[in-house]
Amino acid sequence: MSRFDYRSTALRVASVGIVLAAWEYAGRVPVSIAFPSLSDTVQSAAQMVSDGSLIRALGITIVPLVIGIALSTVVGVLLGLATGLSRRTEWLGIPLFLVLQAAPLAALIPMLVLAYGVGLASKVLVVCIMAVPVIVLNSYKAVRYTPVSLLEMGRSFLGSRRQVIFKIILPAASPVIFAGLRLGTAAGFVGAVLAELLISPTGIGDLITYHQSVAEYPQMYAAIASVILLSAVFLEILDRVEVKLFRPERRAI
Amino acid sequence: MTAPGPQSASTAGAAAAVGVRGVSMVYPGPVQALQNVDLDIPGGELTTLLGPSGCGKTTLLKIIAGLIQPAAGTVLVNGRPVQGPGPERAFVFQDFALLPWASVIRNVAFGLELRGVPVSEREAVAEKYIAEIGLVGFERKYPHELSIGMRQRVGLARALAVKADVLLMDEPFSAIDEQTRRKFQEDMLRLVSVERRTFVFVTHSIEEAVYLSDRIALLTPRPGRIWKIIEPRLSRALSPDQIRREPAYLDMVESIWHDLKHYVE
What angle is formed at CA B57 by the lines to CA B54 and CA B59, rounded to 5 degrees? Predict the structure, then answer.
């Protein structure tokens, strides 16, 4: 197992390395005057970290993001479980979320601004409408596709409905539920940045807009890269929470 | 309901018996899977349901387990009609149905866990059956770390651990490779004689049925009915290798094959 881990880590490092090298090369050619090289971007990022502007901006962006993702997780997983566990609630929610998942949700932003203004509430809602559908649909599918033989096993060994749900269905569904949470978190990040670009410029959205307007492209790319990095950190945390809570067989490896 | 203690284990099974009375099953389609099946399964023996694929033998087993409601007829276990799954029956699944996130010992103890037996007590019982099926040292492993054969041993130990009188086994060896299966079959024979429980075994392998069974219920193709009851009565004094070379064994395999042959395309 450890040799395999070692190799997959090496491959991951290699793949990131190739992308970064391509970035540096493209920036030096340059493919466009609006496309800075990696080294320029890193330099700007370092300077923005040291003058505090990048950290301050991330601190602002993260507020609607965390509130929105936390809300979406609770609401999305509960709705998904409710629809997955009962045929009666299935028809209620699922068609709506299938439509929402297919809809270009950014189109709803002007309507949200009309209803809730340009403040925090609107931004949280944008994160939620981006994140909730995929979380609901994944949780629903995860519950609905619990292996039949595990359900029969639970029944034949006299498990109550409650025991079957908590000891069999939920653990069996957790990998797909967490896959939904990862997709939902990624969509929530899209929502948070969209909200800052389209509703009112704050946080990272403000940095991106500002540096673009004054043609400071390395700074603009540093801001963009910082959101991507933050998103990767969020996904990694989610992965660890999953293994810690639900996947003892992966902890053992 | 209180779970039986470890001591009351193997004596209870001997008298258990299953009676199948006029059971029919129709699946939507409609497909008549079983038609008016009558069958007595004596306690303390291994009875095999044998028949061509699609004859409804697994359906019959799941009806006995209480996992499927028959369209007509009743099943009696120890004289009481089956309404659903019960503590006197335990099921061994064709695909093992192990919890991938649970260690071997938790899987083996899972039936007891569902009955609310305290951890220390159920793990003690589980340890005993893990030893019985030869998986000592694997208690903290997870199913994906075991071979296919070892996984089914875990499924078997889980069924044994709940102290049910009747063990219902749905093609338990069909996913297991030939060599492992032979070893497993030999262990099964030992288990049947040690445990003194009622085993109901579904298979489509004629050799396996003749080798293992006290009684074979031969089913007709769909709609499944009991065609004939065969009692191999091979001498258990012989070693497994001797049995497989016994003329009585070979003749019986041949005659069942002769019966089934014209149903196979």
Answer: 90
Tokens of B42: 């004596």
Q: Tell me whether A1 touches chain B (CB under 8 Å).
A: no
Report the DSSP beta bridge partners of residue B169: B92, B201
Question: Alpha carbon of A246 to those of A73, A174, A182, B249: distances in Å?
Answer: 16, 7, 15, 50
Chain length of chain A: 253
Chain B residues inside the 8 Å CB shell of A249: 100-101, 142-144
Question: In the CATH scheme, what is the code of domain A38-251?
Answer: 1.10.3720.10
The whole-angstrom distance between residue A26's C-alpha and the CA centroid of its chain comes to: 28
In whole angstroms, give the CA distance from residue B97 to residue A155: 12
Q: Which residues contact A30 (CB under 8 A, 6 or more apart)?
A: A36, A37
Question: What would the pLDDT profile of A107-138 be if each residue is shown by its tens digit?
Answer: 888 888 888 888 889 999 999 999 999 999 99
Residue of A156, A107, A158, A101 lying closest to A130 (CA atoms): A101
**All structural domains of chain A with their residue ranges:** 1-35, 38-251
Q: Spell out which residues of chain B touch residue A242, defining contact as CB-CB under 8 Å.
A: none
Q: Cβ contact (<8 Å) for A249 and B89?
A: no
- Over residues A221-246, the mean pLDDT reads 90
- For residue B24, give the nearest of B97, B92, B95, B74 by alpha carbon: B74
Alpha-carbon span B209 to B213, nearest angstrom: 6
- How far does B36 lie from chain A, in Å, by closest CA? 24
Q: Of A107, A98, A99, A77, nearest to A169 (Cα)?
A: A77
Please check whether residue B86 touches A, CB under 8 A: yes
ipTM of the modeled complex: 0.86
Domain residue ranges in chain B? 17-88+166-265, 98-163
Using CA atoms, how far apart are residues B114 and A19, in angstroms rounded to an integer?
51
Query: How high is the mean pLDDT in each 10-residue block of chain B (265 residues)?
Result: 39 62 89 90 92 86 94 92 92 94 95 95 95 91 92 94 93 86 86 87 90 90 86 79 85 88 72
- B175 interface with A at CB cutoff 8 Å: no
Instruction: State the Cα–Cα distance between residues B46 and B67, nearest whole angstrom.
Output: 21
* Residue A218 identity: P
Q: Tell me whether residues B97 and A149 touch, CB distance under 8 A.
A: yes
Kindly state whether A249 is in contact with chain B, defined as any CB-CB distance less than 8 angstroms: yes
Taking Cα atoms as reference points, which of B247, B253, B173 lies closest to residue B207?
B253
CATH number of this structure's domain B17-88+166-265: 3.40.50.300
- How many other C-beta atoms are found inside a 10 Å radius of the C-beta of residue B46? 23
Count of alpha carbons within 13 Å of B215, Cβ hemisphere only? 16
